[in-house]
Specification:
The complex is a heterodimer of chains A (258) and B (163). Chain A contains 13 helices and no strands. Chain A is mainly alpha-helical and 258 residues long. Chain A has a single domain (5-251), classed as Ferritin, core subunit, four-helix bundle (Ferritin), CATH 1.20.1260. In chain A, helix 1 runs antiparallel to helix 2 (36-60). The longest helix of chain A is centred in the N-terminal third of the chain and has 25 residues, at 36-60. Chain A is globular. The two termini of chain A are 24 Å apart. The relative contact order of chain A is 0.15. Chain B is 20% helix and 23% strand. Chain B is built from three helices and nine strands. The chains are: A mainly alpha (258), B alpha/beta (163). Chains A and B meet through helix 2, helix 5 and helix 7 of A and helix 2 of B.
Chain lengths: 258, 163
């Protein structure tokens, strides 16, 4: 719909992140837990994230099969999905809580960047998404609070933080922000300032429980030069996720809903 | 060719038909649910219906779209129908009509008149507690009534929180 290529790339990267996050939360609903209400909550958040992906892609193309092609016809190395979005451990609830908390905070920083872009066409998707994401963040914060209430929970969360926190650098390790800002003639937006904002918000959310962040801010900034998922270099588990996501499409590539 | 008998189809005709299109997840028409944003009839009789989902991830968009097209074709013989989804608006429970509220209540789903004022659809008590912000569909959340001891659902109301 006539977007600058940089803006198009920004929307596709974002949509693929949301799609993978939504897909994995959908998988979690089949693990039935920790309790029925949570199962329902995870299912709802999953649908929201998939809905966000659909909404962003609809800005680029109305036709369902065209949208499918964006998601389903790229080889893995062309899917620049953030490592944080694809992080996944079967049946590890603490890991999923930390992953979701970190992802949603990083996503909020990206959303704040997005809402400043001077483009009426983009304004059409922010209202609902903003409200839904507020609910998600507060939901995961409740779980951080619950799991932090005893020593075993804190140990598990710290373990997950140690592994997942460095992935926040990869989330912002893309030049797309600078390119988008340039396309709209805005002041340069460098990725290190976005990462810095994100790290500050993450620390505020985990601070009440004295968690230790495994890397200093300077180390995180250096990691921006070593993109992983953002450069198409994925975690081992992504092979499985990729195959899972493609399984239905590959059998019936011409199928349409409705 | 799109006509009711010999006269041109009007927006009111279209709305009347949409009143009969039920949401796939609740016994309430899409008009009463407040998701019909606009109806336009072109000079050639082409109809454009603009809808707004309750939540972005609503899995029923394609189904609703098909129901709208089928109903307009069947009832008004209009074949040229465009259904456009808009995500820019902010659907909220205020958009549900009075008739819709009654229908939902009889189905066991509360619609609060304002935040924090949820009424049990069974005994009308306000002595209720929210069990979860998420329900069996994206637009509902789960409550429990401390008086009549019934669990029930309420239409979900989201508010924008400035970052």
């Amino acid at each position: 719909m006539g977007f600058n290529p940089a803006v198009e790339r920004f929307l596709i990267e974002w949509a693929l992140d949301e799609f993978v996050v939504g897909h994995l939360l959908g998988v979690q609903t089949f693990h039935y837990g920790p309790d029925l209400e949570e199962n329902i909550a995870v299912g709802s958040i999953s649908q929201d994230e998939l809905g966000h992906a659909r909404m962003m892609l609809r800005l680029l193309a109305e036709d369902e099969k065209e949208l499918d092609r964006v998601v389903y016809t790229k080889p893995p190395e062309e899917m620049k999905v953030a490592t944080l979005a694809q992080a996944w451990k079967e049946t590890d609830w603490s890991y999923l809580v930390v992953k979701s908390m970190l992802y949603d905070v990083a996503d909020q920083v990206r959303f704040d960047f997005f809402v400043r872009l001077p483009d009426e066409k983009l304004r059409t998707i922010e209202g609902m998404m903003g409200r839904e994401e507020n609910v998600h963040r507060e939901h995961w914060q409740e779980w951080v609070d619950i799991l932090s209430s005893d020593a075993e929970g804190r140990r598990r969360l710290q373990e997950a933080l140690d592994e997942l926190y460095p992935y926040l650098a990869d989330f912002f390790a893309t030049d797309v922000y600078e390119e988008v800002a340039k396309a709209y003639g805005m002041a340069a937006t460098d990725k290190s300032s976005l990462l810095g904002r994100c790290l500050q918000q993450v620390k505020e959310r985990f601070r009440p429980y004295q968690y230790t962040m495994p890397l200093a801010d300077e180390q995180m900034v250096r990691l921006l030069e070593e993109p992983k998922g953002r450069a198409g270099r994925h975690l081992e588990v992504f092979k499985e996720i990729y195959a899972d996501i493609h399984s239905v499409y590959d059998q019936h590539p011409e199928m349409v809903w409705g | 060719m799109s006509a009711v008998g010999v006269r041109q189809v009007t927006g009111a005709d279209v709305l009347q038909v949409l009143k009969g299109v039920e949401d796939p997840e609740m016994p309430i028409s899409i008009v009463d649910l407040g998701i019909v944003e606009g109806v336009a009839v072109g000079e050639e009789g082409a109809v454009k219906v603009t809808l707004m989902p309750t939540f972005t991830g609503c899995p029923a968009l394609e189904v609703i779209e098909k129901k709208v097209k089928d109903a307009l074709k069947e009832r008004l013989n209009v074949a040229d129908v465009e259904v456009k989804w808009t995500f820019g608006g902010e659907w909220s429970t205020e958009k549900i009509t009075a008739e819709g509220r009654v229908a939902l209540k009889s189905f066991g789903i509360a619609v609060s008149p304002e935040p924090g004022k949820v009424e049990c659809p069974y005994c009308r008590s306000h002595n209720v507690v929210r069990e979860s912000a998420f329900g069996c569909s994206l637009c509902r959340e789960i409550y429990y009534c401390n008086d009549c001891k019934n669990p029930f659902e309420s239409m979900r109301r989201l508010v924008r929180v400035e970052a």
